[in-house]
Structure formats: structure tokens, C-alpha cells
Amino acid sequence: MANLKPNKSKISFLITFVILFVIWIILSGKFDLFHISLGLISCFLVSYFSWDHLLPDLDVRTLPGVWIRFIRYIPWLLYQILVANIHLLYLVFHPRTQEVIDPRIMRFNTRLKDGMALVTLANSITLTPGTITIYISVFGEVTFHVIDIQSGKTLPFIMEAKVAEIFKE
Amino acid sequence: MNIIVILLMVLGLIFFTGGAVGIIRMPDFYSRLHPAGKLDTMGVFMIMTSLSLYTLQEFTFSALLTAVKIMLIVVFVFITSPTATHAIVDAGVRAGMVPWTKDETREHILE
Amino acid sequence: MMDTVFYISSIIICILMALSLYRAVVGPTVLDRLIGVNAIGSKTTALLILIGLLYHRVDMFVDIALAYAMLNFIAVLAASRYFQKRKGLYDEGVRK
Fold first, then answer.
1. Do residues C70 and C76 touch, judged by C-beta distance below 8 A?
2. Would you say residue B107 lies in a domain?
């Protein structure tokens, strides 16, 4: 905590506080003085103690661009999830499931370096049916399990390109 | 409006059915995770969307709050479901469970 | 009319939960049971909101559903960490 610049920690604290308070308001749904002040106090305490957990390495200059590109990435991801879900439904309801599927473990090396980008890539791969991330190392080696060869051949590479575009790497 | 709600609900139930049937039919632990983790997430997404649309039909403030809470559950599920799936698969790999394959080529290296 | 739809979908979800329970009871390894329990939990989240709509108390049941989703996630996480490198993980038919 101490080795970071105070300015950085203040912005990180503020973002954490705002996110927590919005969730408090949605969950509580009461707007009298008592509940609001209770929420302010508890959100302040929580974000004071753990502001460096939600946004570990924050860069203020690139942050808005990353978030805008990330929000534009979500509809594409939802569409891919839907398409792959329908493919998985076909596999499940196929009368001879054990002949259609061809599970195996695949590996590839990604060139992403940033921790947040690696987490996004791993979660995107896991959310898309047909592929589950087993292990992703700091050096960018991704190990994942696929249910049939076809679903693991192209999609992770497109996804890697998209994630690299989000985080400008 | 009701037709959209019912359509989304039926789609979500189909995804749930796929998840439940897939858990039973798949041959091994790794391939069972595919229907369990993802079809269920999609089913929750569809059903929750339809229910929040139904809640929004009489447009009051408390109905809006309820709909936002339902969508908050969806966001929460979308964040946590990959994490839970990854935790289970990690436990399996550390225990040294061998994946079921059709032929003997167990690993397929892509470059 | 919508109440009928909600009734029928709740019953279908209950049947699907029974199907997932098969994997939770039979499943050869502990992790298979964990998958079954996780599937039941995510269906319960949807079922709770359906129950809330049937009783016209959605504003109350949605909080319960949210808490249940969190509890389900934490339970799966804790169980999968707890069972790492345990004997029960191996196939119970193969173990001597």
C-alpha cells in the first residue's frame, strides 16, 4: 500500500467507493437519512481497508478508453456465447453423444502480458461453451480443455486478438 | 409483451434441460463441466431477463428496483460462473484425473 | 394466465433439479457430485424468483435469490479447494 503514489490510491479508493455505494443503493432501496448514512459509513470503511483489491494496477490515463472498448466487447461476447451454446445443445441432444464429442486438452501461447488482459481472456474462454481454461501462466501459456476440435480451433485466437485490441497490446 | 416473456422463459428452460441432460450423458468429469457451467449460465440469463421484463410491466419505482436487482443477479452469475468452473477443473487437474478421449492422442498442441 | 406459465415452469425446473440430483448422488468422484450440486444451485436461484412471482412478493424473494447465488458460489469454491489432493477425488470404482 505504501509504495504506491498517493494520487493513484485516492482515485482507486474513489472508484471502489462509488461502485460499492451504487450496489448498496440498489440492494437497500430505502432513501431516508438513516439508511443512506449507514451505507456511506460502511462503504467508506470497506473501501478504506481494501481499495487495492478491486483495481490492483490502475493507470488513470488509459482507464476510460479501456472501459469503453470493454463495454463494446461485451455484445460480441454475448453473441459468441449464444452461438456456441446452441452448438453445445446440439451435441448434448445428439442420439450418440459419445461418438460426436472429441474432448482433448489444447495449448497455445498468447502474447498478452497484462494481468487484467489475461484474466479477461481466461474468463472469455471459459464462458464460451466448448472450451474451459485449465491453467494460464504469467508467461502467457494457456491450457484449455475442448469438447470437440471444431470449437477450439478458431475462437480463442479471435478472442485473443479482440482482448489485445481492448488493452492496446 | 407476454409473448416475449413466455418465449424467453421457454428458451431458458430448453437451456436448463440441456444442462441437466448433458450432466447425465457426458462420459467423464471434464466434459460434464461444459454443459454444467455454461448452459446453466445461459438458462439463468434467459429466465432472469424474461422475469425482469415481466416485473417491469407495471412501471413503478419498486418494480424498477426489483428488475435492476434481478439483472444484478445475472451480472453476478456471469462473473462467478467461470470462476467456479475454473475452481472445479483446477481441483480435478491437481488430483491428476485423466481426461476421457476417443483415441490415444491425449494432447493436441497448437502453435 | 401468466400464473399458469410460472407454475408449469417451476414444475419443469423441479424435475430438472431431480435429474441433476442423479449426478450428485451417483457420480463416481466427489467433483462430479460438486457439479451436480452447482447445477441444482443455479436452478434454485431461478426457482426462488418464480416462487416470489407466484406469491406476489418478488421484492422480498429477489434478495433471497441474490444471497443464494452468492452462497452457492462460495460453497462450490470452498468445497473444490477443500477436496484438492484428497483420496475421495479418485474414481471410487477403481480405488482399492
1. no
2. no
